[in-house]
Amino acid sequence: MDGFTTQELMAILAMQGFAGVSFFSVLLLMALGLAIIYGQMRVINMAHGEFMVIGAYATYLCSVTLGQLPGMTDYYLFLALPVAFASAFVVGYLVEWVLIRHLYHRPLDTLLATWGLALIMQQGFRSAFGAREVSVIVPGWLRGSYQPTMMIDIPLNGIAILVLTLFVTLGVWWLLFRSRWGLRVRCTTANREMSGAIGINTKRVDRMTFALGCGIAGIAGAAFTTISSTGPTSGSLYIVDTFLVVVFGGAGSLLGTIASAFSIAQAQSVMEFFMGGSMAKVLTLLTVIAILLIRPEGLVASKVRR
Hints:
The chain has helices at residues 6-41, 48-66, 76-98, 107-129, 156-178, 180-190, 192-197, 202-224, 236-249, 254-275, 277-294, and strands at residues 145-149, 152-155. By secondary structure, it is mostly helical. It has a domain at 28-239.
């Protein structure tokens, strides 16, 4: 901390904290989808990052296509978000039907199968879009920053991603805890056999749950394009942190996922400035492991499928 005045240090902490909020937003969008898939279905989806990349490339295509039309550069993102969700949702639906439905109650098999799927999808991205990273045309209203003080600069795209994350989180909460579909999901999670006996189509619940989780990852990909370029392996950069968030927060717990994503993102963002990215990640991981040794069920305990 030597060399910084108190005012400079406070400004650094504020800006790093908001940088952590941007990271938290993308991480939470990723973790929400994975929490639904892993927490509710006990499927270890190692290809979850690739569904984020599907959403990112869908946003890129919308940017390239609509950006050529007069006056659409600033508005293509409003169409890209539902397209990114729908693209990842449809692919997730097909993956569950072709592959995942044969592997329930075999978590290690789902890990291996989805890891192989991730490699296949990465090669597919390389073949379709090339190995080089691509970037979208950032809308004018997302450029620039907000300056609450002379020393604090908050990017506008980070604010927009945070607002989007809040809307998606509220939507997931409503779906899981206020809709009839969410009731079916929770019933299936609690007792599959009894749910089937009372007329719930558990296979359809599984398929829609997996597809929804993938669709939310697609939205994360759309948000990701506004802060970074997209490449075939971009999803693999987030998968470890995403699993860490889900396990640390408590499998299937929405509140735990939010608290875990915020804690991990803020810790990494602040420590990266003072000690570098690798050391910050190591210290964050060691802290999470220490807490899980004391509280193995995670921050918020939640019932999962038997």
